[in-house]
Write a structure and sequence with these properties.
The chain is of the alpha/beta class and 319 residues long. Helices cover 33% and strands 24% of the residues. Bound molecules: iron/sulfur cluster.
Length: 319
């Protein structure tokens, strides 16, 4: 199958134990994530802070080693790819980080930041690499003289443009963007989203877009996967999920997201209760400790994902 396929992805960490003392515990950051990103489509991974969405995105690109599950890209199993296949996959799948400053090497000029990946992948001669780096810098809206400057000389929005240029200079097919606008001012967020929109259209890119912000996901993604405590609890076409959320968590998340119309702005209700620790997750449905519709069954058994409409899946005993 073409595009990205993720099946049953898990990522667990061990904390405590060793010379720090205490009992070693397993943090189940990502417990069950399955999704697919077809060529040219944009899939959103959304949920509250700590739901595992960023860890999942990193495990998909093997920036963190997954504990279990299968990730394929255009049919190639990422875990068993040969070194040559992996090099090619790394070129085709790129990552945009939330904090562009932390992800850019402060001692590297922008020229080196953009030309180095081309060199590592054996693309072009020095003149070609220079031309390609200058072209992508101009495409993300930065002047040519930015090439010989350093990350600290730019604003947050400009640094994110550089992060985007670095991701795109290798001409990938898929971009995994982890909260790419959440560290920016609202006005700058809109500019960066417009830039990503333009680039996606021009280059026929696929996106896996991670965000806690339903407004950003609604704007950018054709399909949405809602995550809670390491699980995808609902997935389907973005418009349907936003207009008619099905899973009780998605309903509350939708109600608690800010209303964009300033004339009707009211304080949105918060989802009651704290998210349980992924080091001590509840039995049964992971959402039962906060769910207003929980039943006895919810405490005992984990609901399986069911298709409630074409392309729409919900993991809840109510369906
Ligand atoms: Fe709520 Fe039960 Fe559905 Fe979980 S399975 S979301 S606790 S109703």
């Amino acid at each position: 199958m073409s595009g990205l396929q993720v099946e049953g992805l898990k990522k667990h960490f061990t904390i405590g134990g060793g010379f720090l003392g205490g009992k070693a515990r397993t943090v189940r950051a990502v417990e069950n994530v399955s999704l697919s990103v077809a060529p040219g489509s944009s899939v959103g991974l959304v949920g509250e802070s700590g739901c595992g969405k960023s860890t999942a995105s990193r495990a998909i690109l093997r920036l963190e080693e997954p504990t279990a599950g299968r990730v394929t890209f255009d049919g190639i199993d990422v875990a068993s790819a040969s070194p040559a296949e992996m090099r090619r996959l790394r070129q085709r799948m790129q990552f945009i980080f939330q904090d562009p400053y932390a992800s850019l090497n402060s001692r590297r000029s922008i020229r080196r930041t953009l030309e180095e990946p081309l060199k590592v992948h054996g693309i072009g001669d020095p003149a070609e690499r220079r031309a390609r780096a200058e072209a992508i810098l101009s495409e993300v809206g930065l002047p040519r003289d930015a090439m010989d400057r350093f990350p600290h000389e730019f604003s947050g929005g400009q640094r994110q443009r550089i992060g985007i240029a670095r991701a795109l200079v290798l001409e990938p097919d898929l971009v995994v963007a982890d909260e790419p606008v959440s560290a920016l001012d609202v006005s700058v967020q809109a500019q960066i989203l417009r830039l990503l929109d333009d680039l996606r259209e021009k280059r026929t890119l696929s996106f896996l877009f991670v965000s806690h912000d339903l407004g950003v996901i609604r704007h950018f993604c054709d399909t949405t996967c809602v995550m809670y405590l390491g699980h995808v609890v609902e997935s389907g076409p973005t418009q349907e999920i936003m207009d008619d959320p099905a899973h009780p968590y998605t309903v509350l998340l939708r109600q608690s997201s800010p209303i964009p119309d300033p004339a009707n702005r009211v304080d949105p209700p918060r989802i009651a209760g704290e998210t349980p620790s992924p080091a001590n997750p509840p039995s049964g449905c992971p959402f039962h400790t906060r769910c207003p519709r929980a039943m006895a069954e919810c405490r005992e058994s984990m609901p399986a994902a069911k298709e409630i409409a074409p392309g729409r899946q919900v993991a809840c005993h109510l369906f």
